[in-house]
Specification:
This protein is an alpha+beta fold. It is about 25% helix and about 25% strand. Strands 7, 8, 10, 13, 14 and 16 form a six-stranded antiparallel β-sheet that branches. Helix 2 crosses helix 3, helix 4 crosses helix 6 and helix 7 crosses helix 8.
């Protein structure tokens, strides 16, 4: 935390009574009678056990060692060593005072020694909280303020988001990103810092309100531009940039890009966990609103979202109906964002499943659109986000209108993706074959299948205990295969021409062989056989045949009788 010289009275008013009235600390605070020195630091402390902030020489030496480690790490990142307090008649080392900061409500404070645009400084650490007040993170954080003073000692409280956010980042960096992370809301402007020292940026706490929680932005800058990049930001301030935001924009411009482009990119990294820091990879944004996409085609609920400058809100899209046992189908999701003028926004869509990548929306004027493959499955572990960044530096209360629609293809079933993580297995694990197994089958019906001479196919009811195929052959003739699913299956096999004649000629041709196989065909199960016979002509068929013969014989006899009668008549006529 900063307590610059020219703001000491304001800090006293905001935080309550302070221990010291002299901000430059030309002499030690009262009662700090002991000193331990190292190459770059002097640790001032007292050891009265009746006080809340007493420490020993061993404790003081540990503090000096942690400060030296932080100094080496920050110099190693490429930062210029801060100016020596020898210019003020000091001993050329940075003073660290172990005091009680309970009243201030801080773990540490950095105090500039002068009101000049660049300055030396001193560090106060809270000896009353020996755990967090005297640890590596706090010491590295406060030391980075001393580096900042050497480049730019801003007199404006509204600039302190830059100081605190970058110092908190350095605290995490030096201590190896240990401990539990404290992160702030994405919809709070990056450069928000109440110039009155109050809570207009965030009412939930000093950590969010004063800019500490924005430290992942500086991690992103370090990963993208190099870990010494923050030095160029403060150098811009020292060279006359009007505000911390202007100093940041100028330093980014020197890298050939813009603050808007960098902010848009960072809002995507926040959404995807695209950091190199492992602990930040698992962080997901808190959605401002959620849109259920459901199971049927149609227009989805719309959202109107207000976003301030250099802030982002996220919309979550929920797949399915919430019932992960329901059947689901392939679909297409279309998203449209109408953006306010001047926001310089690049909305991006991201599904956080394995192998997924963020997809920027296509922008035409102030409208951004996206169409992506989707489905109606319900997912337990995965979710989708739409980022709505306002990358401007001065447009607030910008209204983003989000509309979307779903088109479902019920002809294409879908799956909900990867299975859940495996459970812990106890005891000995025995390897088994990975070859797919063929299902077991039961064929319903008689052992002897009787076909008529006019049948064109064989119909079977087959029960299967799993998925697979059933291959059929009649004698030496293959009849093809049919798909099997768990339960009963109604299968029909077409009989090739001439196969029934073969059954009459050969006894071997009347065996129907049914062989179950795995879905990929690599494994086959025990075959089931049935005998096939051709049914004899029925009594009705025989009667019909005899009747036809009798009718033909009667017709022939009547015809002969008519012919004889005609012949006799003709003969009688000739005798007349």
């Amino acid at each position: 935390m900063l307590r610059p010289r020219n703001l000491i009275l304001l800090v006293l008013v905001c935080l309550g009574a302070a221990m010291f009235t002299s901000p430059a600390f030309a002499s030690r605070p009262s009662g700090l009678v002991n000193t331990i020195g190292s190459t770059h630091f002097l640790v001032h402390f007292q050891s009265d056990p009746s006080t809340t902030y007493a420490i020993t020489q061993t404790n003081a030496a540990d503090i000096a060692a942690l400060a030296e480690h932080a100094y080496t790490a920050e110099i190693g990142d490429g930062y210029t060593a801060p100016p020596s307090d020898g210019v003020l008649g000091g001993d050329g080392r940075i003073d660290i005072y172990i005091v009680d900061l309970t009243t201030d409500g801080t773990l540490g404070e950095a105090v500039s020694d002068t009101g000049a645009i660049t300055s030396t400084g001193s560090i106060l650490l809270d000896g009353a909280n020996s755990g967090d007040g005297l640890n590596q993170h706090t010491i590295a954080h406060e030391l980075f303020h001393i580096f900042q003073f050497g480049l730019w000692n801003s007199p404006n409280l509204s600039d302190y988001w830059l100081y605190e956010g970058s110092a908190e980042w350095m605290g995490y960096r030096v201590d190896g990103y240990g401990g539990e992370f404290e992160l702030g809301p994405d919809d709070m402007s990056l450069d928000c810092r109440d110039p009155n020292g109050l809570g207009s940026c965030n009412l939930s706490g000093v950590y969010e309100n004063n800019g500490y929680s924005r430290w992942p932005f500086f991690e992103y800058l370090g990963e993208r531009f190099g870990y010494s990049f923050m030095q160029s930001i403060f150098a811009q301030g020292g060279s006359g940039a009007a505000t911390a935001t202007a100093a940041l924009a100028n330093a980014i411009a020197a890298k050939g890009t813009t603050l808007a482009d960098v902010y848009n990119a960072w809002s995507t990294v926040e959404m995807t966990g695209g950091y190199t820091v492992a602990q930040l990879k698992t962080e997901t944004p808190t959605p401002y609103a959620a849109i259920p996409t459901g199971m049927t085609s149609g227009t989805l609920p719309s959202e109107s979202v207000a976003v301030n400058h250099l802030a982002t809100r996220y919309i979550e899209f929920l797949r399915g109906s919430g019932d992960d046992s329901a059947p689901c189908f392939a679909a297409t999701l279309t998203v449209t964002v109408t953006m306010p003028a001047g926001t310089l926004s690049q909305p991006t869509f991201y599904w956080n499943g394995t192998g997924s990548n963020p997809v920027p929306l296509s922008i035409n004027g102030n409208v951004a659109t996206l169409t992506v493959p989707w489905d109606t499955c319900t997912y337990v572990l995965n979710e989708a986000f739409l980022s709505l960044p306002n990358a401007s530096q001065n447009v607030d209360a910008a209204i983003f209108n989000v509309t979307s629609s779903l088109s479902v293809d019920t002809t294409h079933p879908a799956n909900a993706g990867a299975p859940p993580p495996p459970i812990t297995t106890w005891g000995t694990v025995y390897p088994v074959s990975s070859v797919a197994a063929a299902p077991s089958i039961v064929v319903y019906g008689p052992e002897l299948l009787t076909l008529s001479a006019t049948d064109k196919q064989i119909r079977l009811i087959v029960e299967s205990n799993g998925e697979g195929t059933l291959q059929a052959s009649l004698g030496g003739t293959a009849l093809g295969s049919g798909a099997l699913r768990p339960g009963n299956n109604d299968l029909r096999f077409t009989l090739p021409a001439g196969v029934l004649s073969a059954i009459r000629r050969s006894a071997a041709a009347d065996v129907l062989t049914l062989t179950p196989a795995s879905t990929d065909g690599t494994s086959k199960g025990p075959a089931v056989t049935r005998q096939v016979a051709i049914a004899p002509a029925t009594t009705v068929q025989k009667t019909a045949s005899a009747k036809a013969k009798a009718e033909a014989k009667a017709k022939a006899k009547a015809k002969a009788k008519a012919a004889a009668k005609a012949k006799a008549k003709a003969k009688a006529k000739s005798h007349k």
